[in-house]
Design goal:
Elements lengths: L8 E3 L6 E5 L16 H4 L17 E6 L5 E6 L2 E7 L2 E8 L7 E6 L5 E6 L10 E6 L4 E8 L5 E4 L3 E5 L3 E6 L5 E6 L9 E2 L7 E5 L5 E6 L4 E6 L5 E6 L5 E6 L4 E6 L5 E6 L7 E6 L5 E6 L3 E6 L50 E4 L6 E5 L5 E6 L3 E6 L6 E2 L1 E7 L11
């Protein structure tokens, strides 16, 4: 990320429903996209307060991975914590408030010293209608974005900050917090929005104005595409870092669809299961060969993608290859019933997951892919961390490599 030019001023956006205030853009914004995380490498200053961890586990209000799943961040009732994923390691803690003051949403930019916060919980540290832009070099907020309603999600790129409200998406320049685009959406209580991170100009996907519709903004071609992805309302989405592929799931939670984000064409459809489920997260592997899904059913699924993301321009909506349920398959996910595709119900001609990992039900889990080949990272709001490995040839149950409680005192790093 290029170092922003130092300047100090206050700016208001042209939209009456939001305003931006930039206190001071720090001249030393560092960002590294790989390598180990440390205070020196990532620009995190020592914590301001030197309070020992309490015996009581803190409340977790928010979890999210950074862009390459090399780290994850937990928004807690009095600050935030950052962890390395592969291998697991507690990296950094920041107690922003000595008393209770919750962070309900926190967004990282790779391993930068700049993060975005939104208050949350019974005693929010910041108002739920404000995005606070925090620089840990300075140990303070250097800007804020204010809105008339609750902020549902925040995405950060090296050049943009995207804020999602219940029925609007705002796109701001990072360097001066100038509003550059405002998008109307259908009711979007989950704050669904995905952006590309390695492509420039940006691609952005969010709900359209109709139920089950996706809106894809290509800021390079300056074109907008609307795709009817599902009959039911959208429940989850994920985009590859280069913006070429987009995965979506609906409120039914049975099917996941993969689209070419450049032209909106449907490339593949996979089946999580037959019963309704709430999809918590979708994640592409870095090479776009695999797609992982987590839901309230407690099983993590990994699907094989037959999409060549390097030649998407030549792909058509061809779904003739069929994969079926685990029982009638030959072990490689290829259905022995595919010859009867035109006769059997759609359930039997679906593409099923290659690998699975079963978790206790009752908590929300997010899934991402590890830095090592064929590894999956799973984090839960209950404090659980898992790192698993799947066999890309045989499939089946994944092998657990690591399991930790990231909230425990041993993993919680004493401030300083």
């Amino acid at each position: 990320m290029a170092s922003p030019t130092p300047l100090t001023f206050s700016a208001c956006s042209s939209a009456s429903s939001s305003s931006a205030t930039l206190y001071s853009i720090p001249p030393d914004t560092d960002c590294v996209s790989d390598g180990s995380f440390s205070s020196a490498a990532a620009g995190f200053a020592p914590p301001v307060e030197d309070a020992a961890p309490t015996a009581e586990d803190p409340s977790v209000y928010h979890l999210s991975f950074n862009q390459d799943c090399g780290c994850f961040v937990a928004g807690l009732d009095n600050g935030f914590r950052i962890y390395n994923t592969d291998p697991f390691k507690a990296l950094f803690r920041r107690d922003i408030s000595s008393s209770r003051g919750g962070i309900g949403l926190v967004a990282m930019l790779f391993r930068c010293n700049v993060l975005c916060f939104v208050g949350g919980g019974p005693e929010p540290l910041y108002p739920a209608n404000k995005v606070m832009i925090w620089d840990d070099h300075l140990s303070r907020c250097f800007g804020e974005l204010s809105f008339r309603s609750e902020v549902r999600n925040v995405k950060i790129r090296r050049d943009k900050i995207i804020v999602v409200l219940a029925q609007k998406v705002f796109v701001y320049n990072f360097v001066d917090l100038r509003l550059v685009h405002q998008i109307e959406t259908a009711l979007n209580s989950k704050g669904l929005c995905e952006v590309s991170h390695t492509s420039s100009p940006m691609l952005l996907a969010c709900p359209g104005l109709q139920k089950g519709q996706i809106r894809i903004e290509n800021y390079g071609s300056k074109k907008t595409k609307f795709v009817m992805a599902h009959d039911s309302r959208l429940a989850c989405m994920s985009m590859t870092q280069d913006g070429r592929l987009l995965a979506t799931a609906s409120s039914k939670g049975t099917l996941v669809r993969v689209f070419n984000a450049l032209d909106g064409s449907l490339l593949q459809e996979v089946r999580r299961g037959a019963d309704r489920a709430e999809i918590y997260s979708l994640a592409f592997s870095s090479d776009a060969h695999w797609l992982a899904v987590s839901s309230d059913k407690g099983t993590i699924h990994v699907f094989s993608l037959k999409v060549d993301s390097g030649s998407l321009a030549t792909l058509s909506n061809d779904r003739s290859q069929v994969v079926s349920a685990p029982n009638p398959s030959n072990g490689l996910g290829i259905s022995s019933l595919s010859i009867l595709k035109g006769v059997l119900p759609k359930y039997f001609s679906s593409e099923w997951s290659v690998a699975q990992f079963r978790l206790p039900e009752g908590s929300e889990y997010l899934v991402g892919f590890g830095q090592q080949k064929n590894t999956v990272i799973i984090i839960g709001l209950n404090g659980s961390f898992y790192r698993c490995e799947f066999d890309s040839v045989k499939g089946g149950e994944m092998t657990q490599l690591e399991h930790h409680n990231y909230l425990s005192a041993d993993n919680f790093l004493k401030p300083g």
